[in-house]
Amino acid sequence: MRRIAVVDDSAAVRQSLALLIGGRGFAVDVFLGSEDLLAAPDLPGYDCFVIDLKLDGPNGSDLLAVLRQKGLEQPAILISGWNVDSLERVAVQSGFSAQVRKPMMDSSIVDEILKVLSAADRLVEQAPEGKTGAGK
């Protein structure tokens, strides 16, 4: 079962995403913020990170930078409810695989998770032996 980490400072969003993503067969762990995720005992065990842009404390871009510094290259999806015209640019510059605007009342987040996981799987299949780039 693929594992997804969701980081959002809104309890309602965390609960909604856990139900939506979990309902599609993924194992989902939710985290209040950057510190909570970084304290998780098995960070390399996640297949994808779903991270809110505006978090209390370090923002989503800063959190992804820390994950990358730790050698974790799993796909990450930026989510935001803020009316940020440059959300796509922020996501690309920060190294996110995709971005999704809130509210996510449909399955758009699940569709993006499936896309980025599929792309990551293809990269692993094409990588020379011993070099997966998946951070695992």
Notes on the structure:
With 136 residues, the chain is α/β, with parallel strands linked by helices. It has a single domain (3-126), classed as Rossmann fold (3-Layer(aba) Sandwich). The chain is built from 5 helices and 5 strands. It has helices at 11-22, 34-38, 60-69, 87-94, 108-126; strands spanning 3-7, 27-31, 48-52, 76-80, 98-101. Strands 2-1-3-4-5 form a 5-stranded parallel beta sheet, with helices on both faces. The longest helix is centred in the last third of the chain and has 19 residues, at 108-126. It is globular and about 40 Å long.
Q: Strands of the biggest beta sheet: in what spatial order? A: 2-1-3-4-5
CATH architecture: 3-Layer(aba) Sandwich
Portion of residues within helices: 25-40%
The CATH class label is Alpha Beta
Shape: globular
Give the C-alpha Rg.
14 Å
Count of individual beta strands: 5
Give the count of helical stretches.
5
Distance between the termini: 15 Å
Order of helices and strands: EHEHEHEHEH
Count of spatially separate domains: 1
Q: Mind summarizing the main beta sheet?
A: 5 strands, parallel
Beta-strand content bin = 15-25%
Unreliable residue stretches: none
Average pLDDT for all residues = 88
